[in-house]
């Protein structure tokens, strides 16, 4: 019996799957796309298109992954427990309940948020409830057809490679239908194996966020338009803005409440202007100081700034550098800067962070892409008795965190800090755009850009592998007419000069150019695409942008 036929016979618990399988009976390409592989489980857990088959997000792939996690936990804990959260995506609540039912059947106590909740509150729940693991059902900022399943360790950080490999080894032993235990949900609740996470846990989370505020003075003079992009941010973000005394908050009505279809923002990513269109339209009427946007699981935060009546979108790199400077400046002025302070960012984030950190005597650590690596650095500082040394961490993809209370990026914290920063500069007659221009004038005009190259289906995965293999074997001698002065291969952990890279192995290639520019290429860990990160520095903004445009024109040739 083919795997397709086996699923048609056994996948009966979700009628949507049966209907989908029947609809593709005579479509071999559709069948192949759903069954040519198992949905990949790694340090990011699972992520894929919702639907039927081994290469899709559905109750069976979720159950199987959870059974593997349960088997792992039982080997490492006598009385294991896990926290579970979920976002507004299609079937997120169902997947969360199914995960809880599998854990319960295996003797693992499941602490489940009874309503959708931001990703950082999952990290918080793992830590505050002393759980052995966490599960967050989310596909972050992906389009509506996606969902995902992130796994966290007992430190509240997304799992590292060793744990991911061990959990995967357990998953690979299982048959998706025959080897998965599941307990009736209501029975598991009545027996205390599934426990709702009380509201006070969220209240305590917000109290911890409040401890990260830079100054005590209320932001009474600030006017904000906010959009949760139909996700999980509405309750926590509006509460934290009220707690810091923001004078006026207007929520975008079309995007205020949960909607997994994301009808007004097909790509619910605050990095993309189209996702903010409704917010920008409302801002044109309300005329706030700031438009604030959080992605569906509320771990990323984007902004647009009212600059003389025009709303200017600021990049993740710009906001990260602004926050680093603002936090450091304020802590120094208040005499609260810790000894030997540390900031953390990623290898693909702006080089501008280095001179800003140097100005304030901050040690800047660079880690691989993914906020779990920033979380790892917080954990290392804590283990060494220097938890208070951690000042701030950010990544170019709009993720920020200013404290060690959680180990993932937190848009609740970011929204609070950004509003405090906007208030600080407003009192001095400046906008965040003005403040950024001052930093550019002080440190140079650093420009960054991101290019995405999509590769769908089985053929696309093969093509992505070939591109990375070709680049690894034959590094380009020049890019955009500029000589490549050096390269780094993060999978081989070596540089062109024979140096060693002291980071976990990762499929990333970096090319440094003689003119100070840089190109970093890596496959996405969550989507079928290759990402190219471009950076340039010039004496003027125009010079930097011109260098970026040259790189934009040259990089597509590397993808062949």
Automatic annotation (TrEMBL):
Catalytic function, reaction form: alpha-D-glucose 1-phosphate = alpha-D-glucose 6-phosphate
InterPro entries the record matches: A-D-PHexomutase_a/b/a-I, A-D-PHexomutase_a/b/a-I/II/III, A-D-PHexomutase_a/b/a-II, A-D-PHexomutase_a/b/a-III, A-D-PHexomutase_C, A-D-PHexomutase_C_sf, A-D-PHexomutase_CS, Alpha-D-phosphohexomutase_SF
Cofactor entry: Mg(2+)
PROSITE patterns: PGM_PMM
Record-level Gene Ontology MF annotations: magnesium ion binding; phosphoglucomutase activity; phosphopentomutase activity
Residue span, Alpha-D-phosphohexomutase alpha/beta/alpha domain: 40-174, 220-308, 316-443
Record's keyword annotation contains Transcription regulation: no
Family membership: Belongs to the phosphohexose mutase family.
Protein name, as recorded: Phosphoglucomutase
